[in-house]
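Researcher: Go.
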Amino acid sequence: MKIGAMNNPMHDLLKEIKWIGENKFDFVDLTLEPPGALAKDVDIDGIRDLVEKYNLDLIGHTAYYLPIASPFPSFFDTALMELRICFEVFQRLDVQKVNLHPDEIIGGIFGKEKVIENNIKAIKRIAREAVNYGLKLIIENSLRYFNSVEDLSNLFSEVKDIGFHLDVGHANLNTEKNKTEEFLAKFHSKLEHVHFSDNKGGTADLHLPLGAGLVPWDRIIKSLKKYNYDDTITLEVFSREKRYLLLSRDKLIEMWKKD
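Model: Structure:
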């Protein structure tokens, strides 16, 4: 298992990577978002120097709010342009995988069927673009429309050359029980990356430290081990006090060793 942390895009990117390296994480979940990490403005040489200094791996992460499923073609074109800039940065940094969030924004206007249709159409094009940059696109289960086996199955059946990015916190939202075990049973062969954060169910994606919410971590870890997953896990814990991120890492290591 490799444990990573995400840079906070509100802060200076190089300082974020330095902190992650100094605290001996295995990799950076490198999210390219404004204001602190706008792709066109990042210092690629500076990132590379820090990655080499601290022996860090990188996984690509893109903004969750890109309007890839918008009914306005110009909005998709703009989102794709921004993704190409991100992909170029990732390519120059020898990143192998990059995540993409389905776009759920139009759901309140056009309904589920249109959300699914527009996202599948967009992801097909974006996956082809990713390949041109030597990247594998991995799709993160989202909060509502792509947070069921049925919806993800529709996507994966239509777009063959993408992987699955499991967000355990998202799998705990808008549902009576966490869906991680259900997702792994169906998609373990496509699993490429995992995010851990806690929440209290319902609709709020709180990104709490592990153990501060209601996610059943003992079952989650047993399920990952059942399918022999031993790869990258990002602790997507968002707190002004970063020691909660370090405490979550300690808890993850403890739970992983125990089960």
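Model: The chain has one domain: 2-258.
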